UniProtKB/TrEMBL annotation:
Pathway: Amino-acid degradation; 4-aminobutanoate degradation. The keyword NAD applies. It is an enzyme of class 1 (oxidoreductase). Residues 61-520 form the Aldehyde dehydrogenase domain. It catalyses: succinate semialdehyde + NAD(+) + H2O = succinate + NADH + 2 H(+). Belongs to the aldehyde dehydrogenase family. PANTHER family: SUCCINATE-SEMIALDEHYDE DEHYDROGENASE, MITOCHONDRIAL. Pfam families: Aldedh. GO terms for cellular component: mitochondrion. This is Succinate-semialdehyde dehydrogenase. It is found in: Mitochondrion.
Amino acid sequence: MAMAMRRAAALGARHILAASASASSRAASRRHMGSLDAGAAMEKIRAAGLLRTRGLIGGQWVDAYDGKTIEVQNPATGEVLANVACMGNRETADAITSANTTFYTWSKLTASERSKALRKWHDLLMSHKEELALLMTLEQGKPMKEALGEVNYGASFIEFFAEEAKRVYGDIIPPTLADRRLLVLKQPIGVVGAITPWNFPLAMITRKVGPALACGCTVVVKPSEFTPLTALAAADLALQAGIPAGALNVVMGNAPEIGDELMQSTQVRKITFTGSTAVGKKLMAGSANTVKKVSLELGGNAPCIVFDDADIDVAVKGSLAAKFRNSGQTCVCANRILVQEGIYEKFASAFVKAVQSLQVGNGLEESTSQGPLINEAAVEKVEKFVGDATSKGANIMLGGKRHSLGMSFYEPTVVGNVSNDMLLFREEVFGPVAPLIPFKTEEEAIHLANDTNAGLAAYMFTKSIARSWRVSGALEYGLVGVNEGLISTEVAPFGGVKQSGLGREGSKYGMDDYLEIKYVCMGNLG
């Protein structure tokens, strides 16, 4: 009852506005989506058959062996959406066995056959785009327009790797002796353990599972316990597409037990992980005993450099997109906005004005551009970072506190005059806080940008072509956006340097981490 009252108080006014807006001249489908509340959204998902709460092992939907469950909550309201199976080492061991058995049939299919199954999966993801987006918004909190964008983005990896499945080429090496032929083959590595985060519940799975299945590998996925419902729905659609039982398995619940089982198993030949640097290091160390191949996409501390020759409008728009997408909860978010002194005041004024226009609210409402943070711990981390900055001389230019909506909502925030001794500079805030840092010269900007152990994404805004080449080359990052704040795409390699990870995802290079190279020497050929 108390939860319902809190929800009504926080969301009632906006539901009235959304209902009023739905009577306007927008397209009928968008009008219908905008009027959905959480209950209606869940009914829509159930009607599509996409609300799964059990794990997937060997093509069967399975409860936890001990009957335990965990709650999946809506971060915008605190309501419990579902109780899902809380699995551990025994279920994971069975999932690994299933994946290992299926590997020997799935890997023997032709590339064309695997490609067709993946293409069907892509088509099903797209035909259920609205239900998947609703599910994502409910369990993760992101606005519907971002969730719909993630379905497009996530499905694009399945489509891309369905095509790349037919392009795994080997090589022929000129022999050193006349009676020999030297061949290079590329073969699937085997069973893959994929551990994925909560901030992109679909795309972080498809970006790993797509290339793995395309190469002929089989997969055991462990989604975040905060957002398992999207993963289970996507897996259901994979089964419907003809991905065979055991090729894709999903276990969720007790993260340490699941992770340990994946690392200790000799049948698992690769671990792929997206998440924090601290956990990535543990997985890397834990995989050493069985000498697994490891790919890691870890934390970032992205600089966004605005030079005094930048187009202010372009820089504001790009910085806003790079910072506040998913309420600042992405590993490539602009974590530090470095602004050259000559335009600092002008940029800060325009940027603050742009941030003021962001609408905070429940992601089911069409007007919302900023949803809640994932949980209370995330809000407390943001508060800690902002408090540290103000105690050391930074000034709050906008926001700086919890939102009046309550729950885990936080006001979009701009903090001025941040320096490199503050947490906002040194660590990833993972929230809707934009620190502004003044600098004098290009050399100083490069030094500040590289003054971190992270090296995932960086951004810069300038009208100078020479500077864009010079600075992008000097930045110690795996991804660089020049005059653009949204740079991720399925056709380009995604990954970091330094302590932001190993390997690349997406693009033709994303296949490499799921393949082994075999050299074959054929002799006595006459």
